[in-house]
Amino acid sequence: MLQCTAVTVVPFVEALLALATMEGGPEHPPDVLAQDDFLLCELGEHDEAAEHAAHIWTADVPDVERDLWLLWAGTGAHRVYRFATLPLCPALLRDLVTRAVTSCAYLDHHPGPHSWTVTDPLGDLITQHIHGEVQRLAGDEDNSGGNEGP
Ligand SMILES: [Zn+2]
Ligand SMILES: [Zn+2]
Prior knowledge:
Elements: E1 7-9, H1 12-21, E2 38-40, E3 52-58, E4 66-73, E5 80-87, E6 92-94, E7 101-103, H2 121-143
Antiparallel strand pairs: 1-2, 3-4, 4-5, 6-7
Residues 4, 6, 41, 43, 46, 52 line the site of one zinc ion.
């Protein structure tokens, strides 16, 4: 599953206002965002009907897991956006072998799959390229009569 490729320019003044008024927000909001910053949708590829979501800030409040997200739909003049403080998705991925627990990094009720199944398109492209190279090299070895059993 690839990551959504939507990007949007941050609505700067509204973002500062949202940061300044949220519970557990940063002491100095302009440190968090710069004017003309672009934010990338962090979700996996999703339906156009669902809003894109970019994480802006993790609230610094004990026992409260609330993050500020920019949610938007559409592009350019048709863009509609809102800021929302939302809890994180409660889903956990447990690795039975390593006992590692990975929590989903997205907002609660997000569209599409959980964060651990989403890969960065560029990273994926590189991996694919390497994989192809390995296959090509392995194929060459096979042709030269290599005898590698399982
Ligand atoms: Zn998106
Ligand atoms: Zn999730």
